[in-house]
Amino acid sequence: MLFKNTYQKSFAAFRISTYIFQPPVAHQNLYYGGNEYIDEIELLAQKRALEAFNLNPEEWGCNVQPYSGSPANFAVYTGIIEPHGRIMGLDLPDGGHLTHGFFTPNKKVSATSLFFESKPYKVNINTGLIDYDKLAEEARLFKPKIIIAGVSCYSRCLDYKRFKEIAEENNAYLFSDMAHVAGLVAAELIPSPFKYSDVVSTTTHKTLRGPRAGVIFFRKGIRKIGKDGQKIMYDLEDKINQAVFPGLQGGPHNHAIAGIATTMKQVKSPEFLQYQKQIIANAKRLCTKLQEYGYKINTDGTDVHMLLVDLRSTGITGAKAEKILESISIACNKNTVPGDKSALNCSGIRLGTPALTTRGLVEKDIDKVVNFIHKGLLLSKEVSNISGPKLVDYKRVLNTDAYIKAKVAALRKEVETFSKQFPIPGFEIY
């Protein structure tokens, strides 16, 4: 509560003269007193964030004040391009994120698409993999100012080098949103976006296993050498910092910043590295076992912590699968697969292993989890045979049919009995 209720505005960098990145800026004022220790925590969080990803503070800076990933992304856009500036991000149905510019033919769904001109790039409909050649072709025509390398449901490593080549060809910034894979990046188990990106954002509550918050990393120093031989410098630091405050936010969430500082210290521990390795091992096992049961996995596998199950061949919708699994105490979410037209009427489910791994499950335990998922999806077919195609009727049968309710209860008991072997850290009596 001490940190949660302590209020401040501006940045520690502007309030004390020992800031390691730059001296205080004269036009910034100290809005609130009593921030001596808050300042130290913010600076510590910044320092540890850079160390977590092995970044040189002469080449990179960071802002730890964004409330979460979406405001962090919007701060990047508003900081480095003008309203109606052009951006390109992976389309939401293909595995992108709402904040990467999603819109439908009838509505600009995300504020990103409302205030900026966005154009999605796509995956190959047959392989599920990002079509970099098509992205390059469309970027030449669209001329974006920002190209976003980031995903919310894509199970393969991104080719940051190719993204950078396309961005440079169009004099665009490469902005990488690593929110989902930041822990794997920090553990150096997958390619890092930092080698090629101008700006990188992340949340801290996914694979980093920290508080619900966001961080923006930005390049410093020389951006490129001009045709006349003059050095062209990055000017991202002030632009992004001022976009966060006062542009989009007021007082930061100091309790979350303290959590970021703790998280970034844990990132450098041997235990964290082992955790990340097990996340990937569990995800690969989850994928393989589902395929053995005959389920189709988008991109035919995974390199990371998550995978997308394409249910079109089963006759089960993503919404029905989500509902039946929830009823047996297995959490997942319905998700679009390439070719879907609606996020609500979608054909897949997204599965991930960080939470299971945190609870101590390893590969042999994942086999049991897959068996539960398979049983749940088979039961979903039984429900559909009774209810017909409509989700509202499906839910009604699930909640009222005595035969179905008994089968659900029995399977839920199996799942919950199994899960009790793996206490939730900090809640051993759960």
From TrEMBL:
Matching PANTHER family: SERINE HYDROXYMETHYLTRANSFERASE, SERINE HYDROXYMETHYLTRANSFERASE, CYTOSOLIC
Domain of life: Eukaryota
Name of the molecule in the record: Serine hydroxymethyltransferase
Designated gene of the protein: 411796
Pfam name, any one: SHMT
GO cellular component entries: mitochondrion; nucleus
Gene Ontology biological process terms from the UniProt entry: glycine biosynthetic process from serine; tetrahydrofolate interconversion
Domain Serine hydroxymethyltransferase-like: 31-373
Catalytic activity line of the entry: (6R)-5,10-methylene-5,6,7,8-tetrahydrofolate + glycine + H2O = (6S)-5,6,7,8-tetrahydrofolate + L-serine
Gene3D superfamilies reported for this sequence: Aspartate Aminotransferase, domain 1 (3.90.1150.10), Type I PLP-dependent aspartate aminotransferase-like (Major domain) (3.40.640.10)
Keyword Plastid set for record: no
Function: Interconversion of serine and glycine.
GO molecular function, one term: pyridoxal phosphate binding
Keywords recorded for this protein, A-Z: One-carbon metabolism, Pyridoxal phosphate, Transferase
Family: Belongs to the SHMT family.
Class of this enzyme: transferase
InterPro entries named in the record: PyrdxlP-dep_Trfase, PyrdxlP-dep_Trfase_major, PyrdxlP-dep_Trfase_small, Ser_HO-MeTrfase, Ser_HO-MeTrfase-like, Ser_HO-MeTrfase_PLP_BS, SHMT-like_dom
CDD domains: SHMT
PROSITE patterns: SHMT
Aminoacyl-tRNA synthetase recorded as keyword: no
Residues with the N6-(pyridoxal phosphate)lysine modification: 206
Pathway: One-carbon metabolism; tetrahydrofolate interconversion
